[in-house]
User: What shape does this take?
Amino acid sequence: MNSITSSKTLTLTIGTRASKLALVQTRLVEEALRTAHPGVEVNVLPISTRGDVVLERPLREIGGSGLFVEAIEDALRTGRIDLAVHSAKDLPSSVPDDMALAVFPARGDARDALISASGENFAGLPRESRVGTSSVRRICQLKHLRPDLRILDLRGNVDTRLRKLQDGEYDAIVLAKAGMDRLGLTDQITQVLSPEMLLPAVAQGALAVEVRADDAVVAELLAPLDHLRTRLAVLAERGFLARIGGGCHAPVAAYAEVEGPVLTLTGMVGAEDGRLVQASSLREVREDVLGAAHLGAELAEKLLASGGADLLRGE
Assistant: This one.
């Protein structure tokens, strides 16, 4: 298969996690592919990852930065699948040399969302309220805002987490708004938490489509799905994460916005006890992916020098 013109008889297999949300997100990519290339046949292969199987322990205790990715990348290497759809926030700060992030479709809402059993917003939650999340990034910022709250670990897919809230195990939980939107659950959100209040995870709300680095045909087929503003924002945030070196289980966050040629990036480094260092945003003209990644690294350097390195060392 040497040319995109032969796509009329091409069958592609997409790998993804087996959760309802992952399958919904993969369907978005599948539909976009079919629209761009009507002759292409598309199959979806759900794959169980280590992060999906080990649910009795907090993510940070399982170890590794590719909990939701490694099994899917193995399927790419062996040819079981031709491309993989990831929640971009699940990806480690760098991908293996034999893999490539081919496209970033248009980003969903990057913000976090509070769902409370009583309907109270974050400020109205009573003291000692039990708030569920599995994210050390959220734990850090929630404790910083409300040290009086009890932050409890929460694992499982979105349906499981919502059921635990309904069953009374928690008074409120925090989830990614994009996931709630994609599952048609927006009406269950009590409060959308602004980035000024709770800085999002790196690449939250974005999807990333991964391919084998040497597969030029599939990369070319995917090219129409790429969204430049999303790519610039995500690469700036990932550049920040890569320089921080904390992986996806450290209390770090970054959020980029792109307006014309101007990229604005805000980053955070913290500790689980609620101590944090938040930089003033860097706002510069960065019109290419290399420049975006460099801006992320520059902001990381700023935070590390202003106390972030001590926090990451636990000092």
About this structure: Residues 112-193 form a domain with the D-Maltodextrin-Binding Protein; domain 2 fold (CATH 3.40.190.10). The radius of gyration is 19 Å. The first helix runs from residue 20 to 36.
